[in-house]
Amino acid sequence: MKIANMLGKAATQLGRGRVGEAEKLVARILAAAPDQPQAIGLAGVIAYQKGDAARAAARLRRATALAPDDPALWNNLGNVLRASGQETDALAAYEAALQADPFHADALCNLGTLRRAAGDVEASLDCLERARLLAPDHPEVNHNLGITLAMLDRLEEAADAFERCVQGGGLPPGVAPVWYARVLHRLGRVERAIELMEAEGAADPSHVFHLAALKGEQPAHAPDAYVSSHFDDFAAFFDTQLARLGYRGPEALADLLAEAAPGRHFDRAVDLGCGTGLLGPLIRASCGHLTGVDLSAEMLRRAEARGCYEALARAELAAHTAALPPASLDLAACCDTLIYVGRVEPLFAALTHALAPGGLFAATVELEPEDTDGAGEGVRLRASARYGHSEAYLRRAAGKAGLEWWAAAPFPLRKEMGEEIAGLAFVLEKPAG
Length: 433
Ligand SMILES: C[S@@+](CC[C@H](N)C(=O)[O-])C[C@H]1O[C@@H](n2cnc3c(N)ncnc32)[C@H](O)[C@@H]1O
What we know:
Radius of gyration: 25 Å
CATH topology of the domain at 246-429: Rossmann fold
CATH architecture of the domain at 246-429: 3-Layer(aba) Sandwich
Helix content: 55-70%
Oligomer: single chain
Bound molecules: S-adenosylmethionine
């Protein structure tokens, strides 16, 4: 068999997930032609699929050095580098792919998503619009164009891009239509959002929870698997996206804490649902030992890079708090995370156990309007798949757990698809005796 035929066959096998077959073919090509760049490139992709990202990158680098005009090799190198957290090098690889072929839709799409992750949403839009002109039915392109347009509050255009994705090639593998459902909900097209989520099947925890939220059902909390997968996916662009949304949670929490307990030092502190650690720098100076707790490994990786936590724990926050020794905490902070915790009773009970007398719990919530007709309970899963809490509900739950309401301040939490979300920062105290 000719090398070109063998390469084609190896790529097909790899595309069908038959890694072993592809590997054998690649080994045969390389035995006959050790410097064959595309075979070395395929060996790189195979190494990546087998979990060896360093070897994959080394092989793809060698392949691009041998064939610098092959855009697919650069694009694959970009993908491997990006997946290994080397975003700057990945950007350079995608740009090299586009230098070799300015009309490479995959590289344009990848560059667009990388630029978005780096916070440059306008540059992302430019790349993705160019990619769409080249590949109008490309599912990844339309899906990502929809996300970028939604981030820019261009909701009708975002919905069009998502619909083209669904009607055209279908959603990219492993992708939940959650962004699309959010946009549709914001546009008032809840029926279509529900139809879409139902069509995608119920196996994925993201689907199940989002669908429940869209239908107005009231599960007690967001499932752990939903939280970790949602935030693992979101981690790369969490900080830049929240800055775009005018997110004020950490500042409001730190300001209220400083006002409620001026000059106080907390020897043992936790940041529950620390995420990428945006709160850390704001409370660092008033804490001794500060631990960050979160369910998402990717969010924790970024919190670690911020360098302001003594320890990080991958755990569910109420379970983590309940497992601490009694009276072992002086401060527990929880910023923009009760929106996933839902009903706060298990956490408040754990705090009563873990806080030292005089210890504080400082948190923010999305503020739910007071329940004037007595029909609700003051905690509600919203169609956005986040919970809102009313002040009266929080006060009741605190009272039942034996925690004292210390201070509270309403504030504008963040914007969401053009809408302002009202927040409440509050501080509870475990009474001294
Ligand atoms: C909206 S982010 C807020 C992150 C950070 N506190 C901030 O203000 O930037 C919510 C974070 O809470 C985490 N989270 C949600 N529910 C959790 C739970 N039950 N246990 C631990 N972490 C949770 C998520 O993984 C995510 O990182």
